[in-house]
Write a structure and sequence with these properties.
Layout (H helix, E strand, L loop, with lengths): L1 E2 L15 E2 L17 H13 L3 H14 L4 H13 L3 H14 L4 H13 L3 H14 L4 H10 L9 H18 L18 H15 L5 H25 L9 H8 L5 H9 L5 H22 L7 H28 L4 H14 L22 E7 L6 E7 L5 H14 L4 E5 L2 H6 L12 E6 L6 E4 L9 H10 L5 H8 L5 H12 L6
Antiparallel strand pairs: 1-2, 3-4, 5-6, 6-7
Length: about 500
């Protein structure tokens, strides 16, 4: 026996992984020891199987695979014999042994699919049939088998299972969009926290409004309306807290907006009504959850569908409220991108006013030390190789110092990090200066809402923190060049302070 060394495209298997007789065409040299020949024994098993002598066939096939464990065809026929005896678990084991030898063995895959069908594991059988057809698209016996399976029955979800799945998806959606409170918590504006009653009213409203469009439409519109309605209601609350006293939030919304058009109302209050891109992002955010939740609701028993829809609508209410709360927080946050841009504009405007002469230039740390080249060893964040890096002056802790600066930005609410790249990786990432030389350090600062990231490349051969110190002072409230000069004890030209802030904060302050 040997393995065939020529691959063919014959439907069903990879011939290079199946054994064949070593004496084909050389019969005179055959030792005729059939009792020790796996192929001869398997042939005897085939004859027994054809005569329905199942126990004999099984004994012979087991002997054949004992002699030659990689005899895939014998494993398949053993599986067939077990299947005819209704010993389906043994049959599955045999087909799996054949597939371990040749994963593309069509007969083994089909045998396993048939066995799974006999075990009433219809969905698994259907999945294997699909796999076979992806390899052998014209296998008519598999097409017929799949057709005979009929529609795959969907196992109904219990109400609790549906609620757990929809709640987990809502939570993960909030997490992905950075809308959770610190510690990964879901919080709500307690003054208008009434999602159960609010969701019930939305569900009743949509049941009347969209009844003629079918149940799926009612449920999806309930989720979408609850989200936009909650978002709008929360924003109304921030603008008119006194008006909410003694008034149910749903009633307040109904009195100030068309309930069929909460989407437009929310977009108007967010200030994005004319921004098609922003409106589309907001729509995609909730529509994806609406479609997902409707798919889950479809799987519960009929008597539980309304309860499941109510829960999905409550989740959408919470999602809308948290979206509005985060938006409002950023508007009043002095470190929001919009406020940073306004404050930076003030710095630029202050540059037009003559500076005071109270501060004296103390210079940079690296300029106060006599020049001296030294090598430090740093690990590249990309290739993880340790490389020697030449710097000027004895600033062996240069990289650690930049990381300490990053912590200061993080403490102000701007998540920051510092990465070092060897010259090879820096070139691959196009981290080059105007002379085409690699810049090895990348300083990243994320906006307080996590939506934007400003990247800068500090001077890589010496420690120079003046740009970052200036940016930190700006974030801490120094919003004129005079204040920056005084705080840094420098007397640069006004444009230099602006240049420092722009270099470090980049897209957080510039459009």
């Amino acid at each position: 026996m040997m393995f065939a060394d020529n691959a063919t495209s014959i439907l069903g298997r990879d011939e290079t992984k199946h054994i064949s007789c070593a004496y084909v065409g050389n019969e005179n040299n055959c030792p005729n020891e059939c009792g020790r020949c796996a192929i001869a024994i398997k042939t005897d098993g085939d004859m027994a199987l054809a005569q329905k002598q199942l126990d004999t066939a099984i004994r012979l096939y087991k002997k054949a695979v004992f002699i030659e464990p990689r005899f895939a065809e014998a494993w398949v026929n053993l599986g067939n014999a077990y299947g005819m005896k209704s010993e389906y678990n043994n049959a599955l084991s045999s087909f799996d042994k054949a597939l371990a030898i040749d994963p593309t063995y069509g007969k083994a895959m089909l045998g396993k699919a048939i066995t799974l069908r006999n075990l009433e594991k219809i969905s698994e059988a259907d999945e294997i049939a699909d796999t076979i057809l992806s390899i052998y698209p014209n296998a008519q016996e598999v097409i017929s088998f799949k057709t005979a399976l009929g529609p795959i029955p969907v196992q109904p979800l219990s109400l609790n299972e549906a609620i757990d799945q929809m709640t987990a998806t809502a939570y993960n959606t909030l997490k992905e969009k950075n809308l959770l409170a610190p510690g990964g918590k879901v919080v709500s504006e307690k003054a208008i926290l009434c999602q159960v009653d609010y969701a019930a009213r939305v569900l009743r409203f949509c049941s009347k409004r969209y009844a003629s469009f079918g149940q799926d439409k009612v449920f999806s519109e309930s989720v979408i309306t609850a989200f936009y309605g909650s978002l709008a209601t929360t924003l109304f609350f921030y603008n008119d807290k006194e008006g909410f006293e003694g008034v149910h939030p749903f009633d307040y919304l109904a009195n100030h907006s068309d309930l069929e058009d909460t989407e437009t109302t929310a977009e108007r209050l967010l200030g994005i009504r004319e921004d098609d891109t922003a409106c589309s992002k907001l729509w995609d955010f909730i529509y994806a959850y609406a479609r997902y939740s409707c798919g889950i609701i479809e799987q519960v028993e009929e008597q539980d569908k309304n309860a499941a829809a109510q829960d999905a609508t409550e989740s959408a209410y919470t999602m809308g409220m948290m979206y509005a709360m985060k938006w409002h927080k950023l508007q009043v946050n002095p470190n929001s991108v919009s406020n940073l841009k306004n404050r930076f504009a003030k710095v630029i405007l202050s540059a037009q006013t003559p500076m005071s002469k109270e501060s004296a230039c103390l210079g940079l740390r690296s300029e106060r030390i006599p020049p001296r080249h030294i090598a430090i060893t740093i690990t590249c964040n990309h290739c993880q190789q340790q490389v020697k890096h030449m710097i000027v002056n004895e600033e062996e802790m240069m990289f650690d110092d930049y990381q300490a600066l990053a912590k200061e930005f993080t403490n102000l609410g701007f998540e920051s990090s510092v990465s070092f790249y060897c010259s090879t990786c820096a070139r691959e990432k196009q981290m080059l200066n105007s002379y085409g030389l690699p810049e090895n350090i990348l300083f990243s600062i994320r906006s307080s809402d996590g939506q934007l990231t400003a990247e800068s490349r500090p001077i890589h051969w010496r420690y120079r923190d003046i740009e970052y110190r200036t940016a930190l002072l700006f974030l801490n409230g120094a919003d004129t060049v005079d204040a920056l000069a005084s705080a840094t004890k420098t007397d640069y030209q006004p444009k230099e302070y602006i240049k420092h802030i722009r270099m470090v904060l980049g897209c957080l302050i510039d459009d």
